[in-house]
Design a protein that fits this description.
Elements lengths: L3 E5 L12 H14 L3 E3 L12 H15 L6 E3 L5 H14 L3 E5 L8 H15 L3 E5 L1 H4 L5 H7 L5 E6 L4 H10 L5 E4 L5 H6 L4 E4 L6 H12 L3 H17 L7 H9 L16 H13 L3
Parallel strand pairs: 1-2, 1-8, 3-4, 4-5, 5-6, 6-7, 7-8
Helix pairs in contact: 1-2, 1-9, 3-4, 4-6, 9-10, 11-12
């Protein structure tokens, strides 16, 4: 079972727009030193749609090498093309990742039956642990609880990153799926509520910046230290909210750039934050001594 804090890693770029291996390696060291439970490269936060095949391979390779069996690597391999998702998942398996994070197909807007066929095809072709990523706000389609229950019967479909933002749906999911099926929050701010209902942790954006603190917070939650966890959630609430003041990953990468961890460089169609929001973010980082 996947449980705890998993960092949805950014992908740093150089001033000329190339993949910045040095910055990425330092970020990996920061995560490992911070005690997170796992690493998630090549997802939404990692600007995966704009990475080349060679860059994806190198990001994955560096992540697996850094983890060195000390923590799981869950790599984003989703696509709105089932064949491409299968190919990318096979590469993740070959390089040595521990599981694949496969987002619901976007733009195509498949039916619930189409979602079942999509994930079953990937599972059958790869025979590799798959975590479903349900995020209606990005994909335009929501996986129903009934669909998830059907997919959870598959040996290779082992969990879900639940980012529907719907607490009612999250409760339905947790009351329906098998006990050994991992349910991870896709939203830092909802981690406490999800785990209270029986969830297992978070795939976190904030832990890029505060890995040790985020890891400690999630451990409090998993250990049912409700009073301490609620207090820490209150302390972190403003940070969680501000890291989504603009589209992810703009604020988190900007925050890391302000801290000297990477360049403030994005690939179009993503672009730098507005100066007003960047100033708000900068002031908040000072407030948190970051």
């Amino acid at each position: 079972m996947f449980q705890g804090t998993y960092t949805a890693l950014i992908t740093p770029f150089t001033a000329t727009g190339d993949f910045d291996e040095n910055a990425f390696s330092k970020l990996l060291d920061l995560q490992i030193e911070g005690g997170v439970d796992g690493l998630v490269p090549i997802g939404t936060t990692g600007e995966s749609p704009t990475l080349t095949s060679n860059e994806i391979y190198r990001v994955l390779q560096l992540t697996v090498e850094a983890a060195k069996g000390r923590m799981p690597v869950i790599v984003g391999t989703g696509s709105n093309c089932t064949t491409k998702a299968i190919e990318q998942t096979k590469i993740a398996k070959e390089v040595g990742a521990d599981a694949a994070l496969v987002v619901c197909p976007y733009y195509n807007k498949p039916t619930q039956k189409g979602l079942i066929l999509h994930y079953e095809a990937i599972a059958e072709a790869t025979r590799f642990p798959i975590i479903i990523y349900n995020i209606k706000g990005r994909t335009g389609i929501n996986m129903s609880t009934n669909t998830l229950m059907e997919l959870a019967k598959n040996t290779y479909i082992v969990g879900v990153k639940e980012a529907s933002g719907d607490l009612v749906q999250m409760k339905e999911v947790l009351s329906s799926v098998p006990r050994d099926f991992s349910v991870l929050s896709g939203d830092d701010a909802l981690t406490l509520e999800l785990v209270k209902m029986g969830g297992h942790g978070v795939i976190s954006v904030a832990s890029n910046l505060i890995p040790a603190r985020m890891s400690k917070f999630v451990k409090m939650v998993l250990n049912k230290q409700w009073s301490e966890a609620e207090q820490e959630q209150g302390n972190l609430r403003e940070l969680f909210e501000t890291l989504f003041i603009e589209t992810n990953p703009l604020p988190i990468k900007t925050a890391l750039a302000l801290g000297g961890y990477c360049q403030e460089v994005f690939r179009l169609p993503l672009c730098p934050m507005t100066e007003v929001n960047k100033q708000k973010l900068s002031l908040l980082l000072k407030k948190y001594s970051l």
